[in-house]
Design goal:
It is found in: Cell surface. By secondary structure, the protein is of the alpha+beta class. It contains 3 helices and 4 strands; from the N terminus they run αβαβββα. A 4-stranded antiparallel beta sheet has the order 1-2-3-4.
């Protein structure tokens, strides 16, 4: 027999089947990782908005006595806008010692995964945000 080099058709088919199985496992896992990263970025932006509002309130930029409101116009000098999505709207309200943020970016959270309880919401309190960032859910 000749000294033939190369792979047989059966060997090629086996390699293709193995690659297909690996792809079927890997593609959904990668998709979940990407969605979780986007969700974490949105929650991080929300946390950044609250942090900026705390500084603005301490500086007296938001005014008010009992309920203090800070919107994106007031917070523009306190938040790095390059990190937030273009055209995002947000409003931080401080009542007593509780901060509540209404952020349009929260509507982009995916309905699957760790942060599914927040999907579709437009507002969250600072305590609930901390719980979600730490545990993926609130302690309620």
């Amino acid at each position: 027999m000749k000294n033939e080099k190369g792979m047989t058709l059966i060997e090629l088919l086996a390699v293709i089947v193995i690659i297909a199985i690996i792809a079927l496992i890997a593609i959904p896992a990668i998709g979940n990782i990407i969605n979780n990263s986007k969700d974490k970025a949105i929650l991080s932006d929300t946390s950044q908005i609250i942090a900026g509002a705390k500084i603005a309130i301490a500086d007296g930029a938001c005014g008010g006595d009992s309920a203090i409101n800070c919107d994106e116009k007031v917070l523009a000098d306190y938040i790095e806008k390059a990190d937030l999505e273009t055209g995002a709207t947000y409003l931080v309200t401080k009542s007593n010692s509780e901060y509540t943020v209404k952020y349009s970016g929260l509507t982009k959270l995916t309905a699957k995964g760790k942060y599914s309880g927040l999907a579709g919401n437009t507002g969250i309190t600072s305590k609930d945000l901390a719980d979600y960032m730490k545990n993926g859910k609130t302690s309620k």
